Amino acid sequence: MPVNIPDKLPAIEALKKENIFVIDSTRASHQDIRPLRIAVLNLMPVKITTETDLIRILSNTPLQLEIDLVKIMGHTSKNTSAEHMLTFYTNFSQVKHEKYDGLIVTGAPVEQLEYEDVTYWNEMKEIFDWAKTNVQSSLYICWAAMAALYHYYGIPKYPLEKKMFGVFHHTPSDPKIPIFRGFDDEFHVPHSRHTEIRSEDIEKVPELEILAESEESGVCIVKDKANRKIFITGHAEYAPNTLDEEYKRDFSKGLPIDIPKHYYRKNDPSNPPVVRWRGHANLFFQNWLNYYVYQETPYNIEEIK
After folding, report:
1. Candidate list 51, 66, 213, 237, residue with the active-site label
2. How many Cβ atoms sit within 10 Å of the Cβ of residue 190?
3. In this predicted structure, which of 67-81, 125-139, 206-220, 277-291 has the lowest mean pLDDT?
4. Residue 302 counted as domain residue
């Protein structure tokens, strides 16, 4: 089934060229089916890239999805046009009385700040509290995962000596957990972050369980035992060239940046990347939508609480 996204969103044409099935909201309005309502709070600086990455990976489900792109009031994007934001995004204040089957909150380039020093932290706290009663299942990515764990459970983050940058292999704690249906014994996830959370802090919280870790990159996936929140410190949604673009951008600016680990063929940036994470990334998002959203959400969306 297709993903239903706003008319004329730039991602539509990009994804059609990849043979990915998306339909705009005008066509979807003629289909007699209750789609899953998914809100995406996009905090990444280059909005269109993140939109395309997420819609690409969400489109592989047999379920019909209705995507609402949401923004916060406390920040103005410097890397995406005001016209794009006005056309395709809705302020959180306009949807906070709505119910959603699922919520995705992306990473943000503010991880080296203390949470309380982020200019929009108060609005983030309001969104986290809203999600507890207005969303069936929430998926928090990278900085959002750490921020949500801090807000809900007081889990601290720690600065890293060097950026965790590359594609790392992880081991599921229990392959029988639904989020890992179809996974192999090990799977890969891209990471791009300056901070980390630690297993010893998570293990002190009875409501949480660690689902996947890496000897090299640490904690990757955490879930609450009520199956309402999933936290992933990496970027399973990344396109093949995203780490390459990050590396070459920072290198060209003279910023301190290492070659992303386990990424380029023969560890040579002049070679193309080796994509090791795409199959498991698709399974991860499909399993989240199927087992944690679709099979748990009430048919009457207003019954979510």
Report:
1. 237
2. 27
3. 67-81
4. no
Q: Is 142 a catalytic residue?
A: yes
Identify the active-site residue in 66, 142, 191, 220: 142
Residue 196 among the catalytic residues: no
Report yes or no on 112 lying in a domain.
Answer: yes
Q: What is the CATH number of the domain that holds 37?
A: 3.40.50.880
The string of pLDDT tens digits covering residues 208-262 is 999 999 999 999 999 999 999 999 999 999 999 999 999 999 999 998 899 999 9
**In a domain? residue 121:** yes
Catalytic residue among 188, 191, 235, 280: 235
User: Is residue 237 flagged as an active site residue?
Assistant: yes
Kind of pairing between the strands at 218-224 and 208-214: antiparallel
DSSP string, 235-296: -TT--TTHHHHHHHHHHHTT---PPPBTTBGGG-TTSPB---SHHHHHHHHHHIIIIIIITT
For residue 18, what are the domain limits? 3-240+276-297
